[in-house]
Amino acid sequence: MKLPLLLAVGLFSFSTGMAQLPKQINEQDLARMKLKIHKAADEQLKKWIAKPEKDDYESKDFLEFKTDTTKIEQFMKQRLAIDYSTAGMVEASYDAEKEYDLLLNKYYQQLLKTLEAKDKPLLVEVQKNWLKYRDSERKMNGLLTEDKYSGGGTMQRIIYASAYLELTKKRVLELRDYLSRI
Prior knowledge:
This protein has 182 residues and is mainly alpha-helical. The chain has one domain (2-180). It has 7 helices and no strands. It has helices spanning 2-19, 27-50, 60-82, 86-114, 120-144, 147-150, 155-180. The longest helix has 29 residues, at 86-114. Residues 85-175 form the Lysozyme inhibitor LprI-like N-terminal domain.
């Protein structure tokens, strides 16, 4: 009598414990999730452009920017809801950084096209300086996550990946701000 009861309790504990584990996400799941998010965001953008709200003074360009960033943030949010493990958080941050890097290049090119020819070299110089800054910041963050400074732990990987993402994200916002001022 005790053995079946112990087995039942053990099986129940194991099954409920396993239900709490994060799920591994394969590439097909990621692609489907991204496609769904992009379709929804693009549909919302079309609605905003076609029928702006009475109080909506946002330009088409700003709405496009809002849509671009929403796609990245929503994808990251949904991904973390499925795989909230340390590895999942790190991968999500690095993938989001890649997406923001694409936006960085998009808005840099837009700004470059908008400036007069004589003013473009300044933007090129500023961007080169930012790239040097970004690279040195990444090195500094890497140094500070070493065990000798941080005390170690898996959390350091998340901190580093988050800092990596935030540098690029902040630069995208800066470039977009430059564009909005023109």
